[in-house]
Amino acid sequence: MDKGVLATALGSPAPFGQSQFAFMRGNAFEAKVKADGGAELLRLLYERLGGGAPEPAGDAATPDLSAAGPEGRAARTALALREATASGGWALLDHPMLALEVAGSPAYLEPDAVVVHPDGRWTVVEIKSFPMIDASADASKVGAAARQAAVYVLALERVAAVTEGAEVGHQVLLVCPKDFSNLPTASVVDVRKQRAVTRRQLTRLTRIEDIAAELPEGTTFDPACAPDELDAAVAAVPPAYAPECLAACELAFHCRAKSRAEGAVEALGRSVRGELGGLTTVAGVLAAAAGKEGDPADPTVAALRRAAALRAEALESAAARRAGSLGDHAGSGDDGTGGTGSAAGANGAGGTGSAAGTAGASEGWS
User: Residue 365: CB partners within 8 Å, gap ≥ 6?
Assistant: First the structure.
C-alpha cells in the first residue's frame, strides 16, 4: 500500500520530501566516497575501526549484489556476506539488501555500505551529506542516522546468527563532508542504545495479521474508493499520532487533523501526554485547570490549577501595570501640550515680530 497515494486521496497530502538538489548533492558525495573501489571509505574505516587488522589494500573484495527483486537481492547479500567472512579478507558491500521482520511481515532495507573485516566483524557505514564541522555535526541529524543504522544492525544480526565466525559491530561509521568542503571525514557512532530501543519496539508491535483480523469485512484501502469510504477504512485502524510522525509518515497530516478535531492531547506531543496522566482531551485539561472537573487530590490536576492561578495572577498584574502606564502617559501629555503651545507662542510670535521689524527696517533704509 502506497501511503503517499492514500494520503492524497484522503485530501491530506504530505508536503514534504527531499529536494532534487539535496538528492544530487548526496549522490555526488556518496560516489566520491566510494570511488576507486571504496579506497577512501576503507581508509577512513581502518583509521577509526581497524582493530589491529592488516591495512586494506587495493584488492578488497567488492562482490556483485545484483539479483531479481528484493528477495533475490537479500539472498544474494547474505551469500556474499558468508563468502566474505570465510575468505578472511576485507570486503565492501555497496548497497546490500537486508531483510527484517516487522510486525510479522518482511521489510527490506538498503544501507549505504557494509564492510566485512578480516576477523569476521561486519560494520555498517552510513554516508550523509550534512557537514561535520570541527569534528562534530548536528546532534539531531546524527541521532537520526544512529537510529537508522541501528535498524540495519538488527537486520545484519539475523544473517550473522547463521554465519560461522561472523559478528555484527555495534559501532557504525558515519561519513560526512568535512567542514565546508566536499572532502569526506568520518566519526564512529555507538548504536547499542538505539538498537536496544528499536528491538524492544519491534517486539511490541502488533502483527499485521492480528490487525487485519479485527477490521470489518470488506474493508479496503483502495485510493479509488469514495472519500467517505476510504476515511472510514483508515479510521478502522486506530492511529497513535504524535508530532514526530510529521517527519516520517505520509499519513501524519491526516492523523493530525483527526487528532485536533477530537481534541486529543497526543497532538501536543508524547512528553505532554505523559505528564497529563489520565487527562486525554484538551477540553478535559482546561476544565481541570479551571476547577470544573478532576480530583483535587490528583497531582496532575493540582499542578494544572496552580499553573492556572499563576497565569491569572500574572495577567492581572500585567493589566494593572499597563493601566498605570497609560494613566501616567495621559498626564504627561497634558503638560507637553501646554509647553508646546507656550513655546510656539513665544518663539513663533517673537520670530514673526522680529521678521516683521526687520522687514520694516529694511524698507526704511531703502
Answer: none
